[in-house]
Design goal:
Layout (H helix, E strand, L loop, with lengths): L5 H27 L28 E7 L6 H14 L3 E7 L2 H14 L5 E5 L3 H6 L7 H6 L9 H5 L2 E2 L2 E2 L2 E2 L1 E10 H6 L9 H13 L14 H11 L17 H15 L11 H7 L5 E5 L2 H5 L6 E4 L10 E4 L1 E5 L7 H16 L1 H5 L4 E2 L2 H4 L2 H4 L2 H6 L6 E2 L7 H16 L5 H23 L2
Parallel strand pairs: 1-2, 1-3, 10-13
Antiparallel strand pairs: 3-11, 4-5, 6-11, 7-8, 7-9, 7-10, 7-12
Amino acid sequence: MADELPFERKQSRRRFVMTAAGAGASLWLAGCGGSSSEDATGGGDETTAGDGGKTYTGPKVDLAFWNGFTGGDGPFMRDMVTKFNTENENIKVKMIVQQWADYYQKVPTAVASGRGPDVGVMHVDTLATNAARNVIVPLDDVATSLQLQQDDFAETIWNAGIYKDQRFGIPLDMHPLGFYYNTAHLEKAGLSEAPMTREAHDEALEKLKGAGYDKAFWQSSTWPAHLMFMSLLWQFGGDLYNEDASQAAWDSDAGVEALTWQRSLVEDGYSPPNVASDADYIAFKNEKNSFHWDGIWQTQDLAKTSVPWAVAPLPQIGTQKAAWAGSHNLVIMRQKNPDENKLQASKVFLNWISEHSIDWAKAGQVPARNSVRESAEFQGLKNQSILAEQIDVVRFPPAVPGIGDAQAEMEQAVNRAVLGKQSPKESLAQAASKANKLLEENKKKYGA
């Protein structure tokens, strides 16, 4: 994600999927101990302290703030923490950074032992799992006291922080997939703008081929191929799961059509076969390909290059607009021996970071708050504001504990189909069958 350098980001994100969301689920259970009805620390819910984050007037406290911002956005968050400490003399926040995969392994164990952080950041697709394991605490009182309402957030982003009718995360941002294109290539091919429909996209690929760019769209079989698939699945009217997320639904006609389109980039000669990990992005940086779908985080890296590039919202390949996105949420960790002063100070810090999210947007993020996103200062951030246009069409996986286990099967299905090892239909069906078993097991594991 934006929080890491491109290659490191992709490697650690894969590790994160396999450990925190998949294999790591068993580690969490072992580390936290007990059945799914027990909390990670052996204690009960913390009581509400103070005024829910408006102010802090207690004695001086030290807060540990853990996150995985190891890349170019780390200094932006560190500057925000420094500014907060300057403005709040009774609260000193110490920011501790580690790779996301390590973070998601260490946090539950640290919380269980009573040595966990006070506040942290979690991706939207990990909130339900951590809430089910009682690693993080509900924040409904914070949202109520600070008058945080859905009206100031995009509905999808706001609702993603809720698990079992309780709010566990305050959304900080969203980081969507975007459509990167080489402006010099388009100009040579006689194209005045990026193609935004399937018909225009097909025509653009042919014109680029005629201009000498025969491999204009390298299709990876790994990251971010599965993010592309989810975006296309939603564009074709499909969904990842059924209504209660008890069954995978990506093997629908919409899913087959989406994955067939991805495979067609290879079969039609617009992409080399067997594109290695990260090779599609490296090729774009070396001006070998014209189109590239990737996250908003790449804007920060590309800005340091001499590549003639621009970014746009994803083109509409299917019947409707849709795009995958991730989101960082601010969370408060459960404590074995809750300290009311630290809890109230944590809420004040959480609220301050949320209110100052324009500073975070400069790190390559789209603020979750409408008021910040609609500000003149944010509109001045060209690339972020362009990708923010997708705010009403971004989608997330459902808030289900252990959902990453099933997502990993879908990711493998995309890999097999793009490589031509299986047909899209066969590959998606195989993955859905395995995912359904995992979803059933997770119901028992997490007490859902």
